[in-house]
Amino acid sequence: MDVLSLLGQGFAVALQPINLLLVFVGALVGTIIGMLPGVGPINAIAILIPITFALGLPAESSIILFAGIYYGSQYGNSISSILLNVPGTASSVVTTFDGYPMAQQGRAGPALAMSAIASFFGGTLSIFFLIFFAPLLSKLAIKFGPAEYFVLMIFAFTALSSLTEGNTLKALASAVFGLILATVGLEPQGTTVRFTFGQLKLYDGLDFVVLVIGFYAVSEVLNILSETQVGGEVRKLTGRVMISMKELTSSFWVMLRSSISGFLIGVMPGAGATIATFIAYSTEKQIVDRENTFGKGDIRGVAAPEAANNSAAVGAFIPMLSLGVPGSGTTAVILATLLSYGITPGPLLMQNNPKIFWGLAASMYVGNLMLLILNLPFVGLFAKILLVPRWVLMPIVATLSFVGVYSVNNSPFDILLMTGFGLLGLIMRKMGFPLAPVILGLVLGELMEVNLRRALNYSNGDWSTFFQGPIVLVLWAFTLISLILPFVLKQLTQRAKPGKLQGE
Amino acid sequence: MKRLLTVVLLALASSLSFAQFTPRNTECIAPADPGGGWDFTCRVPGAQVMAELGIIPGSMKVTNMTGGGGGVAFANVVTQRADDENLIIAASTATATRLAQNVFAGFTADNVRWLGAVGADYGVIAVSNDSPYQTLNELVDAILAAPADFAFAGGSAIGGWDHLKVLLLMNAAGAEDLSAIRYVAFDGGGAAMIELLGGRAAAFTGDLSEVLAQVGAGEIRVLGVLSPDRIPVLPDTATATEQGYDVIGANWRAFYAPPGISDEAYNFWVDAVRQVAASDEWNTLREQNGLAEFALFGDDFEAFVREQVAAIHTISEDLGLLQ
Question: Are residues B126 and B205 located together in one domain of the fold?
Answer without folding.
Answer: yes
